[in-house]
Amino acid sequence: MDTTLLIIGFLLMLVGVLGSFLPVLPGVPVSWLGLLVLHLCPSVSFNWPFIVVTGIVAIGLYVLDYIIPAMGTKRFGGSKAGAWGTTIGLIVGIFIPIPFGILIGAFGGALLGELVVNKTEKNLAVKAAFGSFLGFLASTFIKFLATVVYLGLFLWKAWEFRSLFF
Fold first, then answer.
1. Which long-range contacts (C-beta less than 8 Å, at least 24 apart) are formed by 96-102?
2. Domains held by the chain: number
3. Cβ–Cβ contacts within 10 Å for residue 58, how many?
4. What distance in Å separates the CA atoms of residue 60 and residue 72, rounded to the nearest whole number?
5. What angle do CA 145, 36, 5 make, to 5 degrees?
6. Helix, strand or coil for residue 3?
7. Which residues cross the membrane (predicted)?
């Protein structure tokens, strides 16, 4: 039972780390579910206040994931089209077989979205796309950092009770 829960929890952690980059997966909440699964192991447990606090952090970061890119877009004069373009470009960038395809896709999508809205102001479109891209990078970095911290906590707690599993 413990080994099965440990494996499921670890897989959730890995999916969470991937989700910090991929927009279709809620990375931090999935990583938190990995901590919760580890907590449910009869011989390994975090205390409930820890689970509650990390859950609140996961929900807060999930909400901020939508706010931070919008703030970057708005700060640089962008529109919703730029924010949507970033997300669509990111998804397209996943399938581009070149290094940094995700980043190129995110910026290119933001730029195309802004050019659709600001057909005459190309400088404004580039500036807004840059803001949208910066918001995306900031949000991704924060999510990645949180999922790596959750993974570290998971591994630390699992290592603490390694004799029960191996």
1. 102/21
2. 1
3. 24
4. 18
5. 110
6. helix
7. 5-26, 46-68, 88-113, 133-156
d(CA 156, CA 105): 36
DSSP one-letter code for 100:
T
Instruction: Tally Cβ neighbours within 10 Å of residue 82.
Output: 33
**Range(s) of the domain holding residue 23:** 2-165
Distance between CA atoms of residues 98 and 114, nearest Å = 24
Q: Are 150 and 16 in contact (CB under 8 A)?
A: yes
Among 79, 105, 125, 81, residue whose Cα is nearest residue 23: 105
Q: CB of 89 within 8 A of CB of 114?
A: no
Helix, strand, or coil (residue 47): coil
Q: Is 34 helix (H, G, I), strand (E, B) or coil?
A: helix
Question: How many Å apart are CA 31 and CA 20, to the nearest integer?
Answer: 10
pLDDT tens string, the chain, 166 residues long: the values are 678 888 898 999 999 999 888 777 888 999 999 999 988 887 776 788 888 999 999 999 888 877 777 777 777 777 778 778 877 887 788 787 776 777 788 788 888 888 887 766 777 778 877 887 788 788 889 999 999 999 998 988 887 776 555 5
Cβ neighbours, 10 Å, residue 160: 10
